[in-house]
Amino acid sequence: MSDKQDAAEGGRMEERLYQNRYQVDEGRPHVKIHPQAEDSPELQALMAICPAGCYRPTENGRVEVVADGCMECGSCRIVCQETGEIEWAYPRGGYGILFKFG
Amino acid sequence: MSEHFDAIVVGAGPSGNACAYTMAKAGMNVLQIDRGEYPGSKNVQGAILYSDALERIIPDFRDSAPLERHVSELRFWMLSETSNTSASHRNDGFEDGKPDRYTILRAPFDKWFSKKVREAGAVLITETTVVDLVKNDKGKVIGVLTDREGGPIYADVVVLAEGVNGVVGQRAKLRPELKPQHVALAVKETHFFPEEVIRERFNLQGEDDGVVIEVLGSVTSGMVGTAFLYTNKESISIGVGCLLADFAKTKIPPYELLDRFKRHPAVVPLLRGGEMKEYVAHLIPEGGYDAIPNLTGDGWVIVGDAGQFVNAVHREGSNLAMTTGRLAGECLAELKAQGLAPTNDNLKLFRDRLGESFVMKDMKKYRKVPHLLEKNRQLFATYPRAINQVMQAYFRVDGMDKRSKEGIALRNVAKARGGWWSVATDLVKVARAWR
């Protein structure tokens, strides 16, 4: 299978996001988790449904977020609005995802 | 910046640009603020541009706007896992030199629109995120706070054109938080090809002809949603979107859904050999009329996606955004000319004019659709599958007579829904929501 076919049929998240342009605001993540006693089902669902795969399990089974690949869609903010586990703001002006085609 | 503006527009998408352009043309002192490196760099859409809405703002837009292809054919696909039943509408009436819709890429298009806004006299600052609104002690909005140094910026009115995921309106408690069942999460990839490959694969006659394909069925795995495939000049936009509440429930990764769509036998030959150059995700307001927030208050107006202005049934959004933006701009300019302040009472002018426009009439017409779809997921899964089964059985030549085939086909449709009563009920429900 050629690389081109790979691209057409989908690959790993890293390869997918590699095509995108980002200006990461180092040290100032715009999405944070406020951990509670237990991670809510909503927060856990984000490990599957975040379109950029920003939510991952840690070694001790909790949910962590690394928002460098975030496309700022806001899905996590809305899914977890009731649980209060997510603090969400837009990156500072000029930072974050920069769409080439949109 | 201590200057006082007639109006501040938050966001430089279709609604913000339409509004800022209209006000600047009318001689108002307008400041527009956008988070992106350039206007468009934070914006995502399918994307279809509807000519009528833009013609009413910039009549000669075709001379300079970066348009991809004019849409001469609409195709509708109903997919099961391995088959496809489709319908299409080709209209060469679009060929009068003024086609009614185009595919566009939002980053270059919004950049172009923004240039027009600045030429009209508005001031634009980019790379600046509006973080909150400033209110006076009577609760009237009098300006914005940004993430730049220099304190608040003041204006007579603030237009929130901040998009579906705008957080300023919520933070200032002007509009309620979005609900997961009122937004769709869509993911999209842009695959690049030589121009002639696109023309050949999609049977395009004219050099700039284009096709849009809207897709229902197995592609959303039973969730409320649709998929799409649009032809651009040298690329194909392919995407799928479903209600965020459904993704949260099924825990299906949206990119896996997209990959499954890309692997469907109807899609594989169209995408073969392309180069994927961008992967994006965005929310689409799908709550319809009942999810529209209050659109005006003392010193503020909401337009575009921030006001939930999407006609999900007809896949229209950018035209509603531009129209709400233009109408708001016209009304604010009229108030200004009459020496009237943009209070909630005076902004009745905007609410009334919006009510008279196609925007509110269409939103109202399909008011019941979001609820219908949310409660009747079979419309997205069962029927497309049943229809494909019927087609397959009916057209297969295998020695069985046609009357027997018809009987089996009809019984299969009823069986898929657990009886004719359910099928009839579904039909009535759809007809009612459509009316």
From TrEMBL, chain A:
Residues 61-91 form the 4Fe-4S ferredoxin-type domain. InterPro entries: 4Fe4S_Fe-S-bd, Fd_FixX. Keywords: Electron transport, Iron, Iron-sulfur, Metal-binding, Transport. SUPFAM superfamilies: 4Fe-4S ferredoxins. It comes from the Bacteria. One of its GO terms (molecular function) is iron ion binding. Could be a 3Fe-4S cluster-containing protein. This is Ferredoxin-like protein. It comes from Cereibacter changlensis JA139.
From TrEMBL, chain B:
One of its GO terms (molecular function) is FAD binding. The keyword Oxidoreductase applies. InterPro entries: FAD/NAD-bd_sf, FixC-like, FixC-like_C, MnmG_N. Keywords: FAD, Flavoprotein, Oxidoreductase. Its cofactor is FAD. Residues 6-164 form the MnmG N-terminal domain. It comes from the Bacteria. Residues 370-435 form the FixC-like C-terminal domain. Gene3D superfamilies: FAD/NAD(P)-binding domain (3.50.50.60). Could be required for the formation of a functional nitrogenase Fe protein. Probably accepts electrons from FixA/FixB and reduces a quinone. Belongs to the ETF-QO/FixC family. This is Protein FixC. It comes from Cereibacter changlensis JA139.
